[in-house]
Design brief:
Elements: H1 6-9, E1 17-30, E2 33-39, E3 44-50, H2 56-61, E4 70-80, E5 83-95, H3 117-122, H4 124-127, H5 131-153, E6 157-158, E7 164-165, E8 177-180, E9 183-187, H6 192-202, E10 204-212, E11 225-234, H7 238-256, H8 260-267, E12 282-284, H9 285-294, H10 307-316, E13 322-325, E14 347-351, E15 358-365, H11 369-378, H12 388-395, E16 401-407, H13 408-416
Parallel strand pairs: 3-5, 6-10, 12-13
Antiparallel strand pairs: 1-2, 1-4, 2-3, 4-5, 7-9, 8-9, 10-11, 11-16, 13-14, 14-15, 15-16
Helix pairs in contact: 5-7, 5-8, 5-13
Length: about 425
């Protein structure tokens, strides 16, 4: 197993002999001296190949060294001005490059440029080595860990909900179906039903896992396969859940603040810290419709708001995420509680700042069996026996409960100032593309 990582070598004292391994990001040759920028998963360091110091075997292979090749280096740590480097004694080639890709995966090019989109998506298994992608995915790891830490610190229990389900939460037409034992099942769109039943045992539960949708969309916030952060709390109303979400977003934003220099270094963008200031402002769904009508948008009550409408509202609430409260029941799934006028729901959507669209949704969910059955009838699902187990939960001492659901990729897109969610997940599944790699 590898013992010396480059980040550790950079802390070692000079004149120490070390053996390190990594990949050649770039190589420059001047006369009898070659300068290699060697990288591994932790950092980079310059390796100098000087004929005066390297052995004969290394002299023979030096002309054949290419960018992206994997090598091991035995050498001595030296300091050149402010930076440490390694004066090589010997080099061994561990892995050669036998295929051609341009631009080179580890080279400094704009991975977000549209001209590279198809190339990168078709070769993500190689371009995942790009330093920019590595930074985004490292931040994904850190942010997910922060989310789990917050849940654990606030006494939530993680529930591993199934991916295969007999019932989709949203429209059947947007669910990916498959046949098991001659019956139609679905890949989960949302684990809400399972968290709902689990909450009646543990009171505060969460899940971080994949969700799937086949409803075609080419917006910058949609994927066919994405990761959901979901939570459910018993004896909690809509206001309780709004405060819960604001505390979580503030916690994650506070922790990510220290990674601002790295984000500027790799992506040339500052992290978004707009979530630090709570509480976030609110606008009712009805007032949002009125405001957009005044701006000549083609909207009406009962219609969901899209990216253009949310962007216009984002310009109104500049520099902060904001809530749209009380969505129409026509655009919300049936488990959500209705307000007294029976037209709107006890729900709220959190819209990200900087025109980054909807970030998450919050809802006070139905606990009353009669109301659930009414909503099932409205959605044409009452006679579907696959929903019987959900009705059972509401027959057996179901209490008031609220929930939220947040797309992990949407959160990353907003916090890291990345244009598209496909760049925040290792292997994106986008619409109208074959599943490859």
């Amino acid at each position: 197993m590898k013992k010396n990582y480059i980040k550790d070598v950079l802390k070692y004292k000079t004149n120490r002999t070390v053996l390190i391994a990594g990949w050649i990001q770039s190589i420059r040759k001047y006369g009898g001296v070659s300068f290699i920028n060697l990288v591994d998963s932790t950092s980079s360091i310059q390796v100098i190949l000087d004929k005066k110091y390297i052995d004969k075997a290394t002299q023979k292979i030096t002309p054949n060294l290419k960018s992206e090749s994997a090598i091991s280096v035995l050498g001595v740590i030296q300091k050149n001005r402010t930076k440490k480097e390694i004066i090589a004694k010997s080099i061994k080639i561990i892995g050669n490059v036998t295929m051609h890709l341009s631009p080179s995966p580890r080279s400094n090019f704009d991975i977000f440029s549209k001209k590279y989109t198809n190339l990168i998506l078709s070769n993500k298994h190689i371009y995942i080595r790009n330093p920019k992608y590595m930074h985004i995915l490292r931040m994904r790891h850190i942010i997910l860990n922060d989310i789990r830490t917050w849940f654990n610190n606030n006494n939530f229990i993680e529930i591993n909900a199934p991916i295969l389900t007999p019932v989709p939460l949203y429209n059947d037409s947007s669910a990916i179906s498959l046949k098991i034992n001659n019956k139609i099942s679905f890949l989960t769109q949302c684990v809400g039903f399972y968290l709902e039943s689990s909450a009646m045992a543990f009171e505060k539960v969460y899940n971080i896992g994949p969700s799937f949708r086949k409803e075609e969309s080419h917006s910058k916030r949609h994927l066919m396969e994405y990761w959901h952060t979901k939570a459910e709390v018993c004896f909690a109303d809509l206001e309780d859940m709004i405060k819960t979400v604001e505390n979580l977003i503030k916690y994650v934003s506070k922790n990510i603040k220290e990674y601002n220099p790295d984000n500027v270094k790799y992506l040339n963008k500052k992290v978004c810290l707009d979530g630090l200031k709570t509480p976030y402002p609110r606008i009712s769904y009805k007032d949002a419709i009125r405001y957009l009508e005044e701006k000549d948008f083609d909207v009406k009550v009962g219609k969901s708001l899209g990216p253009k409408e949310e962007a216009e509202l984002s310009r109104k609430f500049k520099g902060t995420p904001f809530w749209i409260v009380g969505n129409s029941k026509k655009v919300e799934p049936f488990p959500y509680v209705l307000e007294t006028n029976n037209e709107f729901t006890k729900t709220a959507d959190l819209i990200a700042s900087n025109c980054c669209d909807e970030l998450l949704g919050v809802a006070e969910k139905i606990s009353d069996e009669k109301m659930l059955i009414e909503r099932l009838k409205e959605k044409g699902k009452y006679k579907n026996n696959n929903y019987n187990w959900i009705i059972d939960v509401h027959k057996y001492a179901c209490v008031q409960h609220s929930a939220f659901g947040m797309g992990v990729e949407r959160l990353l897109r907003w916090l890291l100032n990345v244009a598209h969610v496909r760049d925040t997940i290792p292997y994106p599944r986008t619409f109208r593309r074959n599943i490859y790699p």
